[in-house]
Design brief:
Four copies of one chain form a homotetramer. The first copy, chain A, is an alpha/beta fold. Helix content of chain A is 35%, strand content 23%. In chain A, strands 1-2-6-3-7-14-8-13 form an eight-stranded mixed β-sheet, with helices on both faces. A four-stranded antiparallel β-sheet of chain A has the order 10-11-9-12. Chains in contact: A-B, A-C, A-D, B-C, B-D, C-D. Chains A, B, C, D: GO terms for molecular function: dipeptidase activity; metal ion binding; para-aminobenzoyl-glutamate hydrolase activity.
């Protein structure tokens, strides 16, 4: 890889790092991806509404939350046509390289930042070298900036190769809130994909390590739950209320007590609560944020079903109404062993890679599983690989950073794997 | 009152004391009352089925619990016709003295003992003087033996007086388990009653004191609740069970948390629990015994309704069924002030009475309120009076005893009050 | 009463109405009271720190909450000496009229507004006649504006009368949050008071009605409770957390289940909750706002003690810490019957009063009970009287208003009662 | 194997089947084993107290539960010396075959029946062929009768072989209640054991299958928990009680809500509850039976520690005392891979074995793990093998039966494995 290419990858990554945008608000990020794709010269660039199933989006913020980011993007000079196509929470890009007959290979990366103030410690390289987040309170603390750069580098490399077939890259919005995966899976561009590769950097793996395909991402659903009762004066007429506080407390206690399942691991958590007005008023409304997980999609659904029964019964018990809303969710889909082998073989031949791990448990959740599931259902294969990168501190911490040496490794492994796929029978 | 009469009262009371029988099993007691009434000579003696509404009986024991008492009664020589009429839990007697035109006055006493082993301490008079309970494990520890004696004495006194009208005496079974009051209230003999007097001895009032009419007996309901789920191996497949233990625990916690009511005092208690089979099995069945009380009947019913909602929702929450059964209940009815005044005036003129208290709060529950309610609904007046008696220890304790001097006072106050009622316009 | 006096009462009340200030932030209100007292000419005016026991203040807002009100007061031209004396949440005034030998008579009124946006409906008189609140989001919706005006009018009337003795008026801050009563009770000026009168307008009583002395204000305590545990990833390591959410839920369930008490009415409520960060994180911190009440101070304390046991045990159960802080409280103290009789007699002779009710149950809580308790403990008498006023809607609603005709009635009853007290033997 | 030997195995198994005895009450079973060992002629027979650590016994029944079984054994002619040595719940036997220099090899079988009435369906072979349980309500429903027969057969076979070294057989009592394993592990006879084999029949494996060594028996602890509060009249003075019912309900809810653990599977169950006296009495005493399990011993201990915290805090919350007693427990110990390989190799060469499975998850709990742990700690190897047997219905059901063809297979595999061990270097 030329020094220029290497330099461009680093510059790109730093440019995205400076402007992190949270889920469904990646207006500026979308714009910059489009510009880069135009520079590279691909056969099709589809944006926002064109690549998403509007109804399948999850965890979309309301207008008040979208507006400031839209305004900021406008001020930063984002093109009006991009703003139009991404309006109302429709960020994201799909790029297609069409090289005639051959398999349809796809790559998926994510593109959103998170709500976390970035460190200004001089030991934190982005601070020292001037590419720290310019969006106060937000940060690329999970490496999605590196993912975008790698994807752009991979497109360029594939374009310059002997690749035959179709190569489609998905820049998916709103991964952190499990909001964009389903919408992109149902947006139309996955149709006919034979091989899907997804990538993540780091996760404890150092530069030089590649995990060929992860397994056991947890199936997950995130719910917002509102109990509505009736307020009353707690001293004068407690019996006239319908106590949402008691309903919520009963629900919480019983949620954690949902039976363990013989088929495997389940999880449930109520992580946030707020409601009521004052100490002397029977609480009328309480809102919870909860999640359920399972080692399999079925186990997650078992837990969600049990949780919903607990919620409805707790409301009924205290004469309240309850509205559980599934904000986002993702199934469990493991990497395909055959595609994993292909990635492993490619990685073993890649400069800079000194350790190839066949598979590893993912532990957390990832909504790329929607895309993987879709591809599997149509007869295609999918794998989720990890490209190691030295990171000084954990993901989702203010001093997270990536080793930019890994960008080049990522591009090599991905572009070679795409090429290798195109040589297989679809 | 002659020495003979006084002696007969004491003998009678001691005879009943020796043979306490629990609710709906007062076969021998019924028989003895019938014999005494025949000796006295009244105009009508109705027994068992003739005086009860079968369907309105509550807390009736099953055959296994009735049988040994029936057998014991048979062995003691109880008359076959009494056994016939009281079969299947239909104890109780009504005696009518018919003296032509005039008001219809009624007296109600209770007749059951309780499950409590009587003390054999030589300081306990029944033990010392040879009239301790001969039914092991059972005892007249609330003075119902004295009530029966007083009622018989009162009938005799009224019969010998210038009383004009109808005088009906109700010997009610199963008061301790709140089981007989409703059945007697609906048994037919209360029809047309203008004045109803009920009586209790003691309750902390010494010999010489009379409370003319109590108020605020608590309304009460006693429930048996069974949760039914599905058992499962707690280690291998906890998810396959429907955990009646969790349902019961949720119900108990929320039962005690039923909101206090602005209209007054309420109570709820789960006093007994049993269920499940072994530590490694998800519990299939749990049974609770619970009660609710209220300062008024409406407050008791509020609490019962809330309790039932809690029970059904707790069952639903854990995929169980629940069956709450109201075993017995009693409303709140206060003594009528006018009748109370009449009793007070009579008591003030009675030899041996040195303190007349107009009214007092009752505190507990009493199913005579069913009879009082019935009389009130038909336009009659009812009062529940207390005849003081020195009692060495509390009611419902193994060394409870009454001061037999109070028997005569009770007969005087009751018979004079009955006579006084007959002089009033109905 | 002259037309001028009547006019001044109305003007004063409207002036206070325009500038409602919440508890411990009554800087402008204090300033205006001081100015009026100087106009009237009393023998001593003590302000803020001079009249309060600093340590006995409760529910004092922190600096961030005080500052904007201080700034607003400064801009409105409040005198620097008043700002000095009221600094750091020390509002309130005491005015003394010293007329030589004679009893020490005292009057207490409150002076804070509440957090409630006032209606701008043209049917709402303050809106129609231009004296609606100028402090957005705050309102005199409980008549404290009228109380201040009445107190000033009473001081003026007493000063002009043949009153002999000492007359001390307490303008108490922070009544709505039960924050100021104890601090003023312990501030020194109550010493030697023989008669204490407190007054409230309305509470359902129409213009022309006076309640001579209320009874049964509920004893109350308001608590803020913080559970602190340890956060953890709910999917990856739930066992590493100490779940404050579960601790709070357990505490809430058991708080409502604190046993009812045989001595009388108790109440408990958790009216507000907030905590945790996200659905996938074990909650580290949860804050509750709770209150306990009792028909007597002892019953309130029983409930508070039980609540604290529940809180500590719930924290212990989930390996969390808990800090319950009593924010404010008030005991139960009834009006003295003798002083009540004096007020009733005075009221019966007052023009405009057509109905004098001897006593009524208060139902809610009031921290004037701290002052009443103090006076009682020193051998003095205290009564809390109600001056009826037609109010179109309930207290604490956006369209609450008082009938200004009642201002004059209030001044007459209060000043005549003060005068009458001075004629009694102390 | 000769027809005679096969016949003896079947006869023996049926003899034991006819007389099932529950844990620590295997008096007759012990006696019969001793007789058979004397017939066979071994070098040492140790009984009861001689083979158990008295203090390490768990779940020992009290005298009232032991007595009827002792009496029954006496009547059946059990030898006085056996009754002496097994007195007070000290059943069990150890048999030693001493053949000079060589490794010390051990075999462990269990010997208790369970509380379950055996089916008298004519399709149930023990019923049809006359060897159904003669102890009403008790049954060998888990194959321990077959285990004893196999062990006796194995001793005989080893004795007749070229075995060199020491062969010790443990007939362990009270396996079903996890009561005997620890006591035997600490009884002295395990000292110096180089190889320990344990065996179970069936568990879903058909005749002809052998599982060479199981893994993942769950670590388990069984607790009895008693809450003690104070009773009170639920209507008149609920505040005077300390409500053990509320404490238990709080404990149950929170027990099931103990956090899942990142290291693996945990279980908790409250399977039995009983307490309180009547609906109108605040419950004074409630007893629970609970268990905790874990995929590892550490996970079980985590859950037990959490459960104990829940119990103590729930008691404290309701002013009660609580006494959790660990009745029995067992650690997790997996079969040693090397010894498993040896067993597998032997099994593959055994007539009648057509399927050898290297390992399988055990799923449940087994207190042989105490013996395995002891052997491992001293440097020896242990394996727990399964000998398949067709069983018409599940273990622990009234129609459970074993295929007697498997007895011979078991003896062959066990005796050959013992012999093979003796050929290894210890």
């Amino acid at each position: 890889m030329s020094h220029d290419v290497r330099r461009r990858l680093t510059d790109l990554r730093r440019a995205f790092h400076r402007h992190p945008e949270p889920g469904w608000r990646e207006f500026r990020t979308t714009d910059r991806i489009v510009s880069e794709l135009e520079r590279i010269g691909v056969d099709e660039i589809a944006v926002g509404r064109e690549v998403l199933s509007t109804d399948a989006r999850m965890a979309v913020p309301d207008v008040e939350e979208l507006e400031p980011w839209l305004e900021r993007a406008r001020e930063a000079g984002v093109r009006p046509d991009v703003l139009d196509r991404t309006a109302d929470g429709h960020t994201g890009v799909v790029a297609v390289v069409d090289r005639g007959e051959g398999p349809h290979v796809a790559l998926r990366v994510d593109m959103d930042g998170i709500s976390l103030p970035e460190s200004d410690d001089p030991d934190h390289r982005p601070a020292a070298e001037g590419f720290r987040s310019e969006h106060d309170g937000y940060m690329h603390a999970c490496g999605h900036d590196a993912h975008i750069a790698m994807a752009l580098g991979t497109i360029e490399a594939v374009k310059d190769s002997e690749f035959a077939g179709t190569f489609t890259t998905f820049f998916q919005p709103a991964e952190e809130i499990s909001g964009g995966g389903k919408a992109m899976a149902e947006g139309g561009y996955l149709e006919g994909v034979d091989y899907l590769l997804a990538v993540h950097v780091g996760l404890g793996n150092p530069t030089g390590t590649v995990v060929a395909g992860v397994e056991k991402p947890l199936a997950m659903a995130h719910l917002t739950v509102t109990f509505e009762g009736a307020s009353a004066h707690a001293g004068k007429a407690p019996n006239e209320g319908a106590n949402a506080m008691q309903a919520a407390a009963t629900a919480i206690q019983n949620a954690y007590a949902i039976p363990r399942h013989s088929d495997g691991m389940t999880r449930v958590n109520v992580g946030r609560i707020e409601g009521g007005t004052a100490s002397n008023v029977v609480a009328e409304e309480i809102t919870l944020e909860a999640e359920v997980r399972g080692e399999t999609t079925a186990l997650m659904e078992y837990t969600r079903t049990e949780l919903e029964r607990v919620l409805y019964a707790a409301a009924e018990m205290h004469d309240c109404d309850v509205t559980p809303r599934v904000i986002s969710e993702s199934p469990r889909v493991d990497s395909d062993p055959a595609l994993r082998d292909l990635v492993g073989a490619v990685a073993r031949g890649t400069t800079g890679v000194d350790d190839v791990i066949e598979t590893a448990e993912f532990g957390g959740s990832e909504d790329v599983t929607y895309l993987m599931e879709r591809v599997n259902e149509s007869g295609g294969l999918a794998a989720y690989l990890l490209v190691g990168t030295d990171h000084p501190t954990n993901h989702h911490t203010p001093t997270f950073d990536v080793d930019e040496e890994s960008l080049e490794i990522g591009v090599s492994v991905l572009s070679d794997a795409v090429l290798e796929c195109s040589r297989r029978e679809p």
